[in-house]
Amino acid sequence: MVAAGTRIVGPAAAATQESLVVLIDRSARESGLAQALTGSQPVGDGGMRVQLEQADFNLLSGWVSRLSSQHGVRVEAASVTSAGTPGIVNASVQLRAR
Predict the structure, then answer these.
(1) Cα 18 to the chain's mean position, in Å?
(2) What is the pTM of this model?
(3) Whose CB among 22, 40, 71, 89 lies 3.0–4.6 Å from 16's, allowing a Cys bridge?
(4) Burial state string for 52-63 with b = 16 or more CB within 10 A and e = fewer than 16
(5) What's the 3-state SS for the chain?
(6) Is 15 a residue whose pLDDT tops 90?
């Protein structure tokens, strides 16, 4: 029996044991965004702001979705603008581990 208010977390939603910077770098490469990832910087306590240039929007949205669902990372803020080619964007995404 599970007490009221107890949160059950399955493996897909469990937070990662990697540091956020390592997770961002590894997962961006695995998602096909290695060339687009142009920088990252710490934000506050435990957050990261990530810059991407000339990124495929579909790859970017899939990457952010997987970070959330598989690693418990949340998007605190995002700015996405067209890079001039349909489907290609420049983005600044602020992420934080839950």
Answers:
(1) 13
(2) 0.80
(3) 71
(4) beebbeebbeeb
(5) CCCCCCCCCCCCCCCCCCCHHHHHHHHHHHCCCCCCEEEEEEECCCEEEEEEEEEEHHHHHHHHHHHHHHHCEEEEEEEEEECCCCCEEEEEEEEEEC
(6) no
Those residues whose C-beta lies under 8 Å from the C-beta of residue 4, and which sit 6 or more positions away, are none
Q: Say how far apart CA 46 and CA 48 lie, in whole Å.
A: 7
Any bridge partners for residue 50, and if so which? 40, 93
Residue 68, class by beta-carbon neighbours within 10 Å (0-12 exposed, 13-18 middle, 19+ buried)?
middle
Token reading at 65:
């979705």
- pLDDT tens sequence across 2-12: 344 433 333 33
